[in-house]
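Re: weekly structure request thread

Next one in the queue (503 aa):
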Amino acid sequence: MPNEDTDHYRCFIGRLNREEQRPGALNEIKNLLDTKPAGEVVTAIRDIGISELVQCLNVTNPTHVDLTCDVLRLCFEKFQAGDAIKNFTSNFMYLLRHEKSCVRKLAVDQVRKSITTDPNILPIPEYIDVFVATAQMICDPDVGIAQEAVLITKNLPAAAYPKVLDELRIALQQNSSSKCNVFEIVVHISTKSHELFKLCADMKYVEYMILELQSDDVLYQVNILELLSRMAIKPHGINYLVKNGELQKILGHVSELKNNPLRGLLIPGYMKFFGCIAHTYPKEIFDKHSDVFDTLFDAIQSNDPAVLPVALDTLGFIGTTVEGKLCLAALGSKYTKAVNSVSRLIKNSNTETKVRALNCFAGLMSVDKDPSVTKTNPVDHRVTLMTREWFRTLDVKPMQALFDICKNPFPDIRQAAFTLLDAVCQHQWGEEMVARSAGFVEFLLDRSIVYTKETNEAKYDVIKRLALSPAFDAVIVRRLNTYVEQGPFYSESHLEVAMEEGN
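Done, posted below.
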C-alpha cells in the first residue's frame, strides 16, 4: 500500500474510537480494501493491526457488528492461507470464543481455510491453542459452526490430537449432539492409523461410546452404532472390541431388544453394525456369534417396513464375498428360509421392497465384488452350486421370471433387475440359462427400448459378459460384440446422421 493509503488506513482506524464516526470509518476502510490488491494492503494491515476493528464487535448495534465482520473478512482475505492467524493469533483466540455467532463463524472460516490448504501450515505446538479452541466449538449452539469445527478437527495434523482429545473430554458433559460430534471425530481419526486408534482407546473414548448405548435416546443410540460400524471394519477396531469384551457387551444389547418397545428403531442400527463386521470378518462372527443373525432373519420374515429394508441390505452386503456366502450357507435351514423369503419379496412386494430384494439377491449371487476371485483363482465350486440353487428359488423358471422383471415399466425395478442379471451372468450356469431363454438375447440387443443412463450401463455390463461366454453360437457372439463395440448409448439415429454427413 502506498504511503498515502497507509496513512488513510491509519486515520480510519483512529476514528473507530469515536462512536459517532465509527460507521463512516468502517465504510471507508471497507471501500479502501475493496479497491486495493492484496500486495498493497497486507503490510499496512499487519503493521497497524486489527485490534481496533475487533473492539468494534463489542457493541449492541447489530448493523455495526455485521459491518465490522465484513471489514475483518476483507482484511483476512488479503492474506495467504494461515497468515492472518499467524499475524493476529491473540485476536483470533478472542474471535473464536466471541459471544456472537457471526464473529465465531468469521474466525472458524479462516482456520478451515488454513487446514484445507495445508494441514501443516500452522505448526504444532505454536498454534495448538487455536486448534483446541476450534475443536471446542463442536459444542457451538450454531449447528453450522459446530459442523465446520468437526470438519476441521477431523483433519488436524496427528501431533495435535493428544492435546485436542484431552481437552474435548468436556464435550462429553454436553448434549447428545455434542457428544456425537466428539464420537465422529474419534472414529474418523481412529481409522487413520493404529497409533491414533490407540490414543482414542487409551483415553476411554471407545469404551464411553459403547457405554452410551444404554442411553434412553434412541436416535443417539442409532448414531453411535453407525459410527461404531465404521470403526469396527478396521483390523485394530474389531480386535479391540473382541479383546476387551466390548463386542460381547454390544451383543448383550441385541439380546435385550426383544423386550424393548422401541426395537423397531434400534434393530436396523444393530443389524448394520454386525453386517459391516460380518462382511469383513464373516468367519469370526459366524463362528462365535451366529445367533445374532437370528434377528436379521426374523426381520426378513417379518415384513416389518421399519426393519425389512435394512435387513435386506445387510444380508446382501454380507453375501457379496465368497466367505460370506459359505458362512451364510453353513447356517442351514435358517438361511434357506431367508433366501426363500427374499425370492418371495422379489415377486410379491411394493416397489421399494422389490428393489431392495433384487439388490440383496444380486449380492448373494455376485462373485466379482470379492477381490479374492481372480482369473488365476476361480470361484469355489461350492459357491457355483449354491448360488444356482438359490437362484432357482425365484421361480420354477427363474430366468424367465427375471426376464419378465427386466421388462418392468418402473425404471428403478428394471435397473435392479439388470443388476441381478449381471450378478447371475458371473456364473457359467447363468450364461447358459440366458442362452436357453427364448427371446432374452434379442431383448438385450434391442436398442429401441428407452432406459435410464444407469440401466443402459447395467445392461451393457451384462452384454459384455455374454460376449465372452462359450454358451452362445458364433452368430450371437458377433451380434453381442457389435453391441459392445458400439457402446451403451449407440442408436440408429447416430448411424443415420453419420451417413448423411458422409453424403
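Residues 494-501 have pLDDT under 50 and may be disordered. Residues 395-503 form one domain.
Next request, please.
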